[in-house]
Design a protein that fits this description.
single chain; 299 residues; alpha+beta; 4-stranded antiparallel beta sheet; two-stranded antiparallel sheet; 32% helix; globular
Length: 299
């Protein structure tokens, strides 16, 4: 969706830069920046024994997000715990600053515990964002000073369309390229499209998640969400027919016998509810049926 935005928002880092910046290192190259972690499916074997299907995934490298580690305006926050909430004041123990480089900063000092942010300017800019997001119910009209609203609107739509419920203090990436205006980047969407849980979720007709302030966000920015949702429903982007090829083209390269071996290997996890392409289609259709009643504007 972001790639279809008008320039420069379609760059994700939304910066218009000089054609010949000097020095060039102040602007990270963007031609190969995906702004998300990509991966390929592999079958893992150990000395002939099958260990299942896995994904070899790209790391959260700074280059992949067009970040210059030497630029103090380029700040990348990665959630560390199941309580890294944007609806609360900033707590350094729950976040890792992957960018910029800071003298004396240890990042994730132990599993799930972030180090103190030693740079006072970087810390002030991070705290400034959380002061806004934690008070968004009363300060939502100030969004232009803190967030790149279209990106956050897309995120809210993704939560509901794809059933991305695992965002309550978890799987949150926050990035700014000017230290003041922040984007929110989806991450770790392995529990979406009815891929886990009981079959009853195939006809799930309710809001997926109002956790971590997203209920308030959806209320305060309802006009913007409805406008964007309607645009992409009307132009055919947010449809089952457009979305499913992303999954089909990914999975069609995995041999049928590999799927069967994976299901047999992890039978206790699948519990007779292995995700299928058909299940994803039915789930998406049910989500659009529900969301159209709330977000689709009259033609």
């Amino acid at each position: 969706m972001l790639a279809t935005f008008e320039y420069p928002l379609n760059k994700v880092n939304n910066k218009v830069i000089a054609l010949n910046p000097s020095p060039r290192k102040n602007e990270a190259w963007i031609s190969d920046a995906k702004y998300h972690t990509d991966g390929i499916v592999v079958g893992l074997f150990n000395r002939g024994s099958f260990y299942g299907l896995y994904t070899l995934r790209l790391k959260k490298t700074r280059e992949n997000y067009a970040l210059d580690n030497e630029n103090k305006d380029h700040i990348y926050l990665d959630s560390l715990t199941y309580s890294s909430r944007i609806s609360e004041p900033f707590n350094h123990t729950e976040w890792e600053a992957k960018s910029p480089k800071m003298e004396g900063y240890g990042g994730e000092i132990s599993r799930g515990v972030g180090d103190v942010i030693p740079d006072p300017v970087v810390l002030a800019n991070i705290t400034r964002l959380f002061d806004f997001t934690s008070q968004i119910n009363t300060r939502w009209t100030e969004h232009a000073d803190y967030i790149i609203l279209p990106y956050w609107v897309v995120y809210a739509i993704i939560i509901e369309v794809f059933g991305h419920w695992d965002i309550d203090g978890n799987n949150v990436n926050l990035i700014t390229w000017d230290s003041k205006h922040w984007a929110i980047i989806p991450y770790d969407m392995d529990h979406v499209l009815g891929s886990t849980g009981s079959q009853s979720i195939l006809t799930f007709s309710n809001w997926v998640s109002n956790a971590d302030g997203w209920g308030t966000f959806k209320t305060r920015y309802a006009p913007e969400i409805k406008a964007m949702y309607t645009k992409y429903r009307r132009n055919g982007f947010l449809t089952v027919e457009n979305i499913m090829p992303y999954y089909i083209n990914h999975t069609k390269h995995v041999p049928r016998e590999m799927y069967e071996a994976d299901i047999a290997k992890w039978a206790s996890i699948y519990s007779n509810n292995e995700p299928t392409i058909e299940q994803m289609m039915v789930y998406l259709k049910s989500r659009f049926t529900f969301l159209d009643t709330h977000w689709l504007l009259p033609a």
